[in-house]
Amino acid sequence: MIIIIYILDVNLNANPWLLNILADYGVGFRVQNKADLQHLVGLGRVDPAGVSFNGSLKTASVLKFAEGKGINTMSFESMADLKKIAKSAPGEKYFYNLMEALISYFHKFS
After folding, report:
1. Under DSSP, is residue 93 helix (H, G, I), strand (E, B) or coil?
2. pLDDT tens for each residue of 66-101
3. Which of 1.10.3720.10, 3.90.1150.10, 3.20.20.10, 3.40.50.2300 is the CATH number of 7-107?
């Protein structure tokens, strides 16, 4: 079985009208920072279960803020990142952001 999940990166288009329409259709969202997260949660119509936090600069305070808003899916790009997330937001769902890791790796050689 193939499951297709539509996800919009909030920093690409933060228009409240568009985000609310997409939320009504069950589209998920990806946020990169606390400001995007506050904007998205402030709309009031977005299900936190459909939001993933993918920012590369995850501080403990931002992770706790995300967890407090019900965001329970977070990406990691290294073992150090995973350990930081697990310490600040235990019990959350984590996924490895392979594309970001590959881009970072190849930028080292360009």
Report:
1. strand
2. 888 888 787 777 777 777 777 776 665 555 454 454
3. 3.20.20.10
